[in-house]
Amino acid sequence: MTGTLVNAGMIAAGSCVGLILKKGLRPHLEQAIHQATGLAVIMIGLNGALTNMLSSDPATGSVSSSGELMLVFSMILGAIVGESLGIEEHLNRLGDLVEDKLHLSGFAQSFVNGALIYCVGAMAIVGAINDGLLGDPSTLITKGVLDGVTSIVLAASMGPGVLFSAIPVILYQGGLTLFAGLLEPVLQGELLRQICAAGFVLVGCIGVNFMSDKFHIKVANFLPALLVPALWAGVKALLALAGMPL
């Protein structure tokens, strides 16, 4: 758990710095930072998705892609399930409750966006598993440095919810660390790439939401998309055991 605790601590520290800076920002500067953050987050999402879908052959130098159909089905099925369950609406109601209790405006959006950005990606999964199996927190500490810098910008542009997004990081990465022995044989290779590709698409959607208040993607409603590759892998494994491999 060392790496996860360091990661969460850096998010909290960076968020505090960002909130201090936010107090001295003029409205036009705050808007400019908000848009700049959106552009950066879009590029992070695009880069992450492409990294997990493209591969190169060192011998020939050719580049190939894979996982396009899985990504499409993941996003569509995830949207159907998420909209049916009203995930974003439930999270917003929870955020509104916290806002009323603590008098923190914009809490829900900044909390959800921060949690998604910090929890999506191979570094969170691989780093947490390495911390649990090998006692090596180096990947999560490196991620913590990156997240800490990101949290300064996010908190300065979005508000205090970013600080509290350290909590789901502890729960998510901590859970992966505790159950690393069970998850390590499964969360690797093609499945890991498919989950991360879908996750980084969601990160890109967050960046789009940063850019304009008039156009909003309900990103939280797409969260079930992250489960689709794992469910499909489970179905294929069961069919293989039954002597009907796909």
UniProtKB/TrEMBL annotation:
Transmembrane segments: 32-55, 67-87, 107-129, 149-171, 191-210, 222-244
Pfam families given in the database record: DUF554
Record keyword Transmembrane present: yes
Top-level taxon of origin: Bacteria
Designated name of the protein: DUF554 domain-containing protein
Keywords from the UniProt entry: Membrane, Transmembrane, Transmembrane helix
PANTHER family (alphabetical): INNER MEMBRANE PROTEIN, INNER MEMBRANE PROTEIN-RELATED
Native organism: Candidatus Faecalibacterium intestinavium
